[in-house]
Structure formats: structure tokens, C-alpha cells
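Why run this: before we spend reagent on co-expression, it is cheaper to look at a predicted model of the complex and decide which construct boundaries make sense. The entries below are exactly what would go into the expression plan.
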Amino acid sequence: MLRVALAALASMTLSVAMAGAPPTVPDTMAQRVQPCTACHGKEGRSTQLGFFPRIAGKPAGYLYNQLDNFRSGRRAYPTMTYFVEQMSDDYLREIAGYFASLELPYAPPQTVDAPPDEIRRGEALVRQGDAAHGIPACVQCHGAAMTGVLPAIPGLLGLPRGYLVEQFGAWRTGQRKALAPDCMAKIATALTPADITAVATWLSAQPVSLPPAAADTLARPLPLACGSVSP
Amino acid sequence: MTRRRTAALVLVLATIVVAGAGLVAWLNVRGEDPLTGDAGSFAATPEQVARGAYLARAGNCAACHTDRGGAAFAGGKGIATPFGTVYASNLTPDAKTGIGGWSAAQFWRAMHNGRSADGRLLYPAFPYPNFTEITRADSDALFSWLRSQVPVTQVNRPHELRFPYNLQASLAVWRALFFTPGVYEPAPERSAQWNRGAYLVRSLGHCAACHSPRNAFGATRDSLELSGGLIPLQNWYAPSLASGAEAGVADWSSREVADLLKTGLTPRGAALGPMAEVVFRSTQHLTDPDIAAMAEFLKSLPQAPAHRGTPAKLDKAVQAHGEVLYKDHCASCHGANGEGGAGPRGVVYVPLAGNGKVLLETPANFIHIVVNGGFPPTTAGNPRPYGMPPFGPSLKDDEIAVLATWVRNAWGNAAPPVSALDVLNAR
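The model came back. C-alpha cells follow.
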């Protein structure tokens, strides 16, 4: 009898617990975009060792363009496509705006003890480019501090080396595209594999201190036409 | 004598072959209306164009005929089938590469009889076994709307089908066996609303293309209407709409059915994977009366008894491991007792206790969602959906297997176990 009563009590408690207020889910973007953090790290700040790029603090226009590129097939990564393919423009803009608004500390640089020759070549390409081969300096578009330029040019620091190398590879093979004219595809094709490695090595060896805010404008016009930047 | 006998045998065989071929040919063109009029002789009314735009949503034409990042309705998207890849065609009114040169009668023949303007038999990846039941008036409206679109010059990509599926003769035999042109016959004992719903579900909605089982030749079986089917090559199972144990809605309220089709999210479940696309591109755009009609029809489907298989028997180690995994990875959203989570505007994370999708005998969808996560579609009713993180990157196959098995047998749930091999297959 006691047993039955206890069992009844237990089942009542359980049903009360289940019928009672379920966990109240925060009405925030941070909660909504939990799936992004599985790869891009807590709050999209990336990790020191991973492949996945940091998205926190990148310009909103750049992030929106990338989300749209995945949705439209200009970039190919199955998980990203799967996540965004049934999303409205408005929601993609809101997600981009959310991650752009995060100002978070950066992890220490991933690349250490790189060969000095490679570092020198990388820095030269980033700061001066290679006029003989028609390659502009990275800083000409991505800003003197390489922290990007609003609204759509991304910063280059704090990204994993492997990610950087793979992006150049993807541009060369047409796996990654941007709105035409696709300036980065042009540059990636002009670079040699050794140059790509050097650039990625140097960039991923740079420490980043806050605030790495993107610049508002560029001092000079872009050295070549970019479909994802022009209004 | 022997020679004579051989000759006779050859003659008999030849007669059978010729008669068979004749029968197949006849079966392929039976019920066709005469092709009257030409491309120029069809004048669409504004009402037809507007109606056609709506019907194109109801039929979700864009899902196949608009390629990712491609021009709207210009085709080119590949539909993977077990027989090879079928490429959707250009439906824009371009005269050379689209349907600009088609007459309304030819368009009707494609929708109703599965034959293209040039006479070719069409592959049933284009779901004319369902579309065959649309009315001529709806076909003409669709045609009117397509003809009002911007023409895009894009040559149709040839299908990449293996032998013998690449032959028109094989397709003719398939059609002779599995396709009969049909007309939607209203059920007089049912309400007008029910009939409207049945028409939308069976014809334009082509729900059976995923939700009905297919035989070895890829044909859906009418006798098993909407009783669930594995979507070829996608690792998603379109659950039975004719079983309350799966996705049958007989015991749902009409409002709940409407919510799922309009918003993609209800406390009973969220639309993820292929169904998210259906809600995103098609059903959320349908009128409330049409959604209510579909709900009435779906609620009336005869319900088959549940097939749940034998529930897993969890040993102590699995029980303990599963519980820890659930607490660490799932409970913060889905609740300590699988009760789900709600925000200020209602359900956000669906309950896992008693959830038909979690308990499906075929665990493919559940594994898929644990491994890949996902977002329900953005809709007017749920414009900023919450997502489920992918656990594929952080959990091993055997951990996901233990977790899934545990959830499928917690809080009164009872379903067969999930193995690490099941998880591996879903990755």
C-alpha cells in the first residue's frame, strides 16, 4: 500500500515537474546562435589551435556576405550551407551584426618559431605586395593595421594559419568565390604556393591587442575592383 | 522439322516482343489530350499569372528548378537518385533553352502525362506521378506565371544516369508498370475543405514523393499512401503521416498542424532537414484556408498501428554514461527531464520526452540532428529561430550512440538502441 502511495506520489511529482515551467530560454542572439560556437568557439572567438576562423568582431558587411555566399553556393562548406540555407536575409544580417558587435580578447598567435626567411617574405608581401607580379599589398585593402575596413573588408589577424592557406587554395580552384569582380581570386591566382604559405605564416604569427576595430575608411582607393566591397 | 520449329518459335517470340513493345508504347501515350494551339496562341489573364505564382509555391517548383545561387527557375540543379543524377530543366520562357516555345497544351502534357514538348518521356524525379492530378486550370495558371518570368538562356544539363536507366525504352517500361495519368476525383462524402486538402497534398504538394515508401524501381506505392519513406541518398527518413507513432497528426489539433506548416516549429516538433526547406519555400506561403484544408485531410488519414521495435535494454554502464552525456550536452536546452524549453513567445527547444521523431524505429533523423544540429527555417511566425549545435565535431560515434539510446529510453520513452555503426553511417 505504502509502495503504491509512494509510486503515485513519485509519478505526481514527476508530472508536476514536467508540466511546471520548463527552463526559460534567454531571448538573446547569443542563445539563438549556439550552433555557431560548436566550431567557431565561445562567442565566435575561435580557438588557438583550430582550423575554424574567428568571426567575433569582423565587420558585419563581410560576415553577411559570407553567410550569403554559403547560402548561394559561392562558398562551399556543407555544415555552413546546411545552417543558412533556410534563413531570410534579415536574419542573416542580424546574425552578422551580432558577431560583428562582439569585442573579445584574442588568443596568443598560433604560429611561433617560423623560419625567418618565410616571415620576411610574408611581411614584405603583406606590407608592400609584389608589384612585378601584379600583387597589391594586403594593407592596401585590409587597412594599415590589417584590422579590416568597414563595412565589408575583413581583418586578417587572429586567424589560424591552416584556414588562411586553405582560403587561398579555395580561391585558386574556384571553391571559394565572391561577388564579381572577385578580387581575391585574382590575387590568389597570382601568388605562388610558397608566397601563400609565407603570407599565412606571417599573419598568423601576429599578436592582436584590443581594440582591433576595423577602420572606417581607406586612405586610398582600392587597387583593384571588388564586387563584395563596392556599394 | 527442327528448323520449322525454331522458325515458329522465333515468330512467336517476335510477336510477343512486338506486341509487348506496342503495349508499352500505348501505355505511355494513353489518356493524352490532343495538342492544340501553339506558344503564341495562349493569352494569360492577370488572375492566371497571380494564381500561378501561388501554385508555384504550393508545388515548391523552385526547390528543384532554381539551382543554388542560380537564376530563378533556370534549372540546372542535380537531383541525386539511386539511378544517377537527374538535372532539373529551365522553366523560364527563353525560346531556345526554356519553355518559351511551349504551348499550354504541351505544358499540360508534361504535368499530366509526364512527356516533354519534344515528345521525350520525363523522368519521375519530376514528380508527375503526383502532379498528374492537378487540374487543367491550375496547369494553365502555372504556365501563365512561368511565361511571365524573365527569360534566362541556360541550356539544360543532360542527366547522368547509369545504363539502363538512361534509355527512353527503360523509362517507357517503368511508366507502363508504375504510372497512370490521373485526375483528382473528389470524395463526395467528404467536405469541400477535406477535398481541397487532399488535392493539395496529393497533387501539387507532392508530399508522397518523400513521405511514401518506394520500391526497388523507385516508384512510390499508392496503397501505402504517406506511410513514410527513406529519402534516397540523403540519410533522412520522411516519417509516416499515417501513424501517430511517427508524424501522423490524427491526434494533433488543426492549429498545431497549421503551426508546423506555417512556422516550422511546434511543441510537437520542429521542421528540420528536408522539411525545413518545404516549410521555408512552400507551406509558410500558403493561405490559412489552404493550410487548414491540408490539416483536415492529413488528420483524416487512416492510422496504422505503431511500429516501434523492441526497446533497448540499457545496462548500468550505458545508463550512467548516457545520463552524464545528456546532462552535459542536452539538458541546458531540452530540460533535465526532456521537457523542452520555452522562451517568452512559446516553445523554443522541443520536448524529447514522448517526441515521435526521437522515437522513430529508424533512428536516422535523430542521429542526423545530434551529429549535424540545425536550424528550423525562418518564417513569418518564427523569424529568428534558435538552433541546435552539431555534436558530431565534439562527440565520438560511440558516445552519440549511447546518448541517443539513453534519450530514446528515458522518461517513459521506449525505442530500439542506436549503435555506433548507425552513427558512423549518418556522418
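Chain B touches chain A at residues 67-70, 276-277, 279-280, 332-333, 335, 337, 339-345, 348-349, 351, 353, 372-378, 383-391, 393-394, 411 (CB under 8 Å). Residues 316-426 of chain B form a domain with the Cytochrome Bc1 Complex; Chain D, domain 2 fold (CATH 1.10.760.10). Bring this page to Monday's planning discussion.
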